[in-house]
Automatic annotation (TrEMBL):
<dbReference type="InterPro" id="IPR001623">
    <property type="entry name" value="DnaJ_domain"/>
</dbReference>
<dbReference type="Pfam" id="PF00226">
    <property type="entry name" value="DnaJ"/>
</dbReference>
<dbReference type="GO" id="GO:0006457">
    <property type="term" value="P:protein folding"/>
</dbReference>
<keyword id="KW-0143">Chaperone</keyword>
<dbReference type="InterPro" id="IPR008971">
    <property type="entry name" value="HSP40/DnaJ_pept-bd"/>
</dbReference>
<protein>
    <recommendedName>
        <fullName>J domain-containing protein</fullName>
    </recommendedName>
</protein>
<dbReference type="InterPro" id="IPR002939">
    <property type="entry name" value="DnaJ_C"/>
</dbReference>
<dbReference type="InterPro" id="IPR036869">
    <property type="entry name" value="J_dom_sf"/>
</dbReference>
<dbReference type="GO" id="GO:0005829">
    <property type="term" value="C:cytosol"/>
</dbReference>
<dbReference type="InterPro" id="IPR018253">
    <property type="entry name" value="DnaJ_domain_CS"/>
</dbReference>
<dbReference type="Pfam" id="PF01556">
    <property type="entry name" value="DnaJ_C"/>
</dbReference>
<feature type="domain" description="J">
    <location>
        <begin position="4"/>
        <end position="68"/>
    </location>
</feature>
<dbReference type="InterPro" id="IPR051339">
    <property type="entry name" value="DnaJ_subfamily_B"/>
</dbReference>
<dbReference type="GO" id="GO:0051087">
    <property type="term" value="F:protein-folding chaperone binding"/>
</dbReference>
<dbReference type="GO" id="GO:0051082">
    <property type="term" value="F:unfolded protein binding"/>
</dbReference>
Length: 345
């Protein structure tokens, strides 16, 4: 069993944000170590701070409600990618200061929120309001989304002013439309200015989405190029083959491999990679890397054929594929049982 954060704050599971803040305010004041002077106060104070940090954040609360403390602290897969594990920073006084705006054990922020002073009475408003630090979100993109570009919709929840009253707020959902340019590169920051929580004391934070590439079943992205791994047999490595590529833009490209495939060999197909961000009409390259599957057993008679073939290659100074094919075919014919051979025409 993990920590019951609702139990720590003594609230119902369907409690709203105000109830969560009220519960934390009462408990944080009661168990502030500087005020209580109790041996267990620091441990309880830390549990209260951790519970508040989880339940006051919509994403953390949603993960906790569905997967519990274990899922929250292990990390889970979400609809838009992997949700990173959460770990409390371990400084409950930092949480206390962020909430009350002071380290005083006698702070009383709830009355301030219920009956805020006029705008001109706020000390921070007399000068320049401070802007909240930016809020970062990971934006997972598939190679298909990166190839074609478009618009991605993301839902966020934030505190917004109620009507024209710039002192009262309520939690609302907003849909952000995120433009995705073809060929957009990993770790690109897409900024939505001042889309964070609104409050009369601070300028809302910027919401920043940082792009990451999702894994693809066939391709790996490297700058504007696509890397593809193909496994072929030793016969195909020596005699040639054709690699069939199902491209991201739903085409089938057949790439003939006529060279000898040796360890480290790569086949580059031009203009079959990802769109180049600065000029999407142009594309990077597709690079095919090979893994050669060697046979586990070769009969002695076949080894002799190979020895003759490689000997002829050395003599001829090159790789005569047709000659090797004919020798292998002749060897197969010679090893057919006489009774199984076709009668002469």
């Amino acid at each position: 069993m993990g920590i019951d954060y609702y139990g720590v704050l003594s609230i119902q599971r369907n409690s709203n944000e105000l109830a969560i803040r009220k519960a934390y305010r009462n408990l944080a004041l009661e168990f502030n170590p500087e005020r209580l002077q109790d041996d267990n106060a620091e441990k309880i104070f830390a549990f209260i701070g951790e519970a508040y940090e989880v339940l006051s954040d919509p994403l953390r609360r949603a993960v906790y409600d569905q997967y519990g403390e274990e899922g929250l602290k292990r990390g889970v897969s979400g609809l838009d990618g992997y949700i990173s594990a959460y770990h409390y920073h371990g400084d409950p006084m930092r949480t206390y200061k962020d909430f009350f705006g002071t380290a005083s054990p006698y702070a009383d922020l709830l009355d301030y929120l219920k009956d805020p002073p006029l705008m001109y009475e706020l000390p921070d408003i007399r000068g320049i309001k401070k802007k909240q630090p930016p809020i970062y979100h990971t934006l997972w993109l598939s190679l298909h989304e990166i190839f074609f570009g478009g618009v991605k919709k993301m839902k966020i929840r934030r505190l917004q002013y109620i009507g024209t009253d710039c002192t009262l707020t309520e939690l609302k959902e907003n849909i952000l439309s995120i433009p995705i340019k073809p060929g957009i590169r990993p770790n690109t920051e897409i900024i939505f200015p001042e889309e964070g929580d609104q409050n009369p004391v601070h300028i809302p934070a910027d919401i920043i989405f940082v792009t990451k590439d999702k894994e693809h079943e066939c391709f790996t992205r490297e700058n504007d190029n696509l890397i593809m791994h193909v496994e072929i047999s030793l016969e195909e490595a020596l005699l040639g083959t054709t690699v069939t590529v199902d491209t991201i833009d739903h085409r089938v490209v057949r790439v003939p491999i006529t060279d000898v495939v040796y360890p480290g060999y790569k086949k580059m197909v031009e203009n079959e990679g990802m769109p180049i961000l600065e000029n999407p009409e142009n594309k990077g390259n597709l690079i095919i890397e090979f893994r050669i599957s060697f046979p586990q057993y070769i009969p002695q008679s076949s080894k002799g054929v190979f020895q003759k073939a490689f000997h002829l290659v050395k003599i001829g100074g090159g790789f005569h594929h047709e000659m090797i094919n004919k020798m292998i075919l002749a060897d197969k014919i010679m090893r057919v049982d006489p009774c199984e051979q076709l009668p002469p025409p």
